[in-house]
Amino acid sequence: MSQVEISNSYPTSARNQVKRRHDRGFYDHATVHRILDSSMLCHVSYVIDGQPYCTPTFFWREGTKLYWHGSSASRMLRSQTRGERVCLTVAHLDSLVLARCGFNHSADYRAVMAFGTAYLVTDPEEKERAVIAMVDRFFPGRTAGLRQSTAQEIKATSFIAMEIEEASAKIRAKGVADDDEDYELPVYAERIPVRTVLGAPEPCPRLLDGVSRPATLDGYSEGRLLEDALRDAYFVEYPNG
Fold this sequence. Notes:
The chain is of the alpha+beta class and 241 residues long. The protein has one domain: Electron Transport, Fmn-binding Protein, Chain A (Pnp Oxidase, Chain A, Roll), CATH 2.30.110.10. It has six helices and nine strands. A six-stranded antiparallel beta barrel has the order 2-3-4-7-6-5. A hairpin with a 2-residue loop joins strand 2 (41-48) and strand 3.
């Protein structure tokens, strides 16, 4: 494997190596990042005084670093001011798989497990960037048209960052996979696709006259897959507003 190939993949270890069905495991940045970028919700697992916790929260990626936010009073954030080892996961359910025997019932999915040391963002410039990125990551250019956050709002919000040290993706995308002899059985089998689709926008009833939906939201149109909108937000540039 060339040095270029190595640098474009996360290192494997006993911690992140896919052990069961290792053929479904991926470690390259492109696959891992694509799955991460298709979601805005993650689950962060950590241990405080011997007690395990798992917290769902919004997150975003910048290169090989992940950010998430929460209240300054939260247990997770207080713990991670010390630099805690954490495991962050994201999963997409793509289909339900009904086979000809119970054992072969399954699901198609994409999942990522990322490991690193989380730290509280205290640098003023990094925190200021995070305040903007928390919105613009998902809705590019939107913060330029918003009311500026107050000092109290910024004080009440904390951000956690984690450089991805190790990560792995696991993907199943094969639909029904029965034993050869079971295909001769008179049993119905199918794959049921699962998608998160955007609905029709519901404008706030208290909008001022003349205020219309800005171009920054063009990517979030009715009928579009949420994951496509989230992924495209990394690359689409909109005029400010």
